[in-house]
Design a protein that fits this description.
alpha+beta; TATA-Binding Protein; 6 strands; 19% strand; DUF302 domain-containing protein; TT1751-like_sf
């Protein structure tokens, strides 16, 4: 039996920042707001119309975990140096528009974005979603994944000091 995971193509998107690590971190956290969990209150109350409205009011990209996973201290505990912070970025409504077609797509949302120092460079790195979900062969999922990859790349480029207009 062939492992289904072996069919996927991982295509990293790596953006070298023009900014320092801390400036890139500040820009990322200022650009991508924390996830507003109001929709969960509506769901808990059984108000799915209210939940949908709250989801539709969210910005296209949200930070799902606060605080983000800071690997810097963990690296130091094993005698390694370096700076790295992991963010989970996405939008619950965008995710559900994909997972309605195949629940396994939920394995790939939200997107994990790594802010790290790699040698002398500050980088933002994320694996492109479109090539990963292509294995499901669902045109609606492919279209949403491509749009999400484009939006996230554009946003990360802005955070890194490019395309500021």
């Amino acid at each position: 039996m062939e492992n289904e995971g072996s069919k996927q193509t991982i295509r990293p998107i790596i953006i070298t920042s023009k900014r320092s690590f801390s400036e890139t971190q500040e820009a990322l956290e200022a650009t991508i707001p924390p996830l507003d969990l109001t929709f969960q209150t509506y769901i808990a109350e059984g108000d799915y119309v209210g939940a949908r409205a709250a989801l539709e009011a969210l910005p296209p990209l949200n930070n799902f975990i606060l605080p983000p996973r800071n690997f810097t201290g963990l690296l130091l505990t094993i005698g390694q140096s370096g700076q790295a912070i992991q963010y989970e970025i996405g939008n619950p409504l965008t995710a559900v528009t994909m997972i309605q077609h195949n629940l396994d797509v939920a394995l790939h949302t939200p997107r994990r974005v790594l802010l790290r120092i790699n040698g002398e460079k500050v980088e933002l790195k994320v694996n492109a979603l479109a090539p990963i979900v292509a294995k499901y062969q669902i045109p609606e999922v492919d279209a949403v994944a491509k749009k999400l990859d484009d939006e996230l790349t554009k946003t990360l480029r802005r955070v890194a000091g490019y395309d500021t207009a």
